[in-house]
Amino acid sequence: MTVVLVAFGTMLMYSSPLIYAALGGVISERSGVINIGLEGMMTIGACTAVIFGYYTENPTIGFLMGGAAGASLALLHAAASISLRANQVVSGIAINIVGVGLALFMARLFFDGAINTPPVPNKMPKILGGLFGNASESAKLAFNQDVAVILAFAAVVIMYVVLNHTKWGLRVRAVGEHPAAAETVGVNVYLVRYICVLLSGMLAGFGGATMTLSVVSSFSPAIISGHGFIALAAVIFGRWTPHGAMGACLLFGFSQVIVVMLGGGVLTMIDSKVLSMIPYILTLVMLIIMRGKSAAPKADGVPFERGSHG
User: Fold this and answer.
1) Which residue from 227, 226, 235 is spatially nearest to 286, judged by alpha carbons?
2) CB 29: neighbour CB atoms within 10 A?
3) pLDDT digit of tens for each residue in the chain (310 aa)?
């Protein structure tokens, strides 16, 4: 039972950064804008969170600034993809390059040339600590998660309700499926897409911040290491829905649990580099399985020009 509880808690912890980024991918693509740049947005969010968390000794400020950094990078992607109608995939790739490079520059600038930063003084607080005062240590690890982890799952519920049960959510879905038709009934397609892409970047930034303030306590060049692309796979595997993406992220989080357990002495004969490949192999397998079984929003990746009839 103890092993199960520990594995469950570890899965929640490792899934939360992916959930934030995957939700960012969902909201962006449901509005018709592909966001390949989640990796770069997560990376800049991770670095910014450590910088502010380290110097202010307040992880909450670091978390919020990580989201702001991701949104700032997303603004560049929105301008290129929406206003300039550039190729969204190319723009996203550029964002990844800029995000990683800028994060490394900031780390060197604020930490005397070091790209592996010192640990932040404080990690994110655990708001449910009082509920588990007499619980076992394994139960505390499983359920006494910190604020960032809990908010990730709350964000899934919020996005589901907004997309499916609000007028604004209807506009987002309309813009992602038939932007020209949405424009004819008075929906500002550009505005909706800008908001969604900015939210996408903010959520990806939160994901990066969660990685450096909750999962670990510092920033390094390999801290994100493909998590943004795994989040994109979760969006596809989850059929562009918040709850589906969350389920995929939990699956990928469980694969990380397997890596931790196998690397912790269960099968010591397996090289750690081989074990670290498990989440990425799972990503490829899931994409192969879902090939042809998921349909993206009809206008996803298609630039919109005001007054067009496409």
Assistant:
1) 235
2) 25
3) 677 777 888 899 999 999 999 999 999 999 999 999 999 999 999 999 999 999 999 999 999 999 999 999 999 999 999 999 999 999 999 999 999 999 999 999 999 888 899 999 988 887 665 555 565 665 666 677 889 999 999 999 999 999 999 999 999 999 999 999 999 999 999 999 999 999 999 999 999 999 999 999 899 988 998 899 999 999 998 999 999 999 999 998 888 888 777 765 555 566 666 777 878 888 788 777 776 666 789 999 989 887 665 5
Q: Are 277 and 285 in contact (CB under 8 A)?
A: no
Single pTM value for the model? 0.92
Q: CB–CB of 179/299 below 8 Å?
A: yes
8 A C-beta contact, residue 91 and residue 80: yes
Between CA 148 and CA 209 the distance in angstroms is 9
The residue type of 135 is A
Round to the nearest angstrom and report the end-to-end CA distance of the chain.
57
Q: Which two tokens stand for residue 37?
A: 């740049």
User: Rounded to 5, what percent of the chain is helix, strand, coil?
Assistant: 70, 0, 30
* Cα→Cα distances 90→86, 113, 235, 308, Å: 8, 31, 19, 23
User: What distance in Å separates the CA atoms of residue 268 and residue 27, rounded to the nearest whole number?
Assistant: 41
Whole-number Cα distances in Å, 202 to 9, 74, 242, 306: 25, 8, 16, 26
* Residue-range domain boundaries for the chain: 2-228
Nearest to 239 by CA among 160, 127, 161, 175: 160
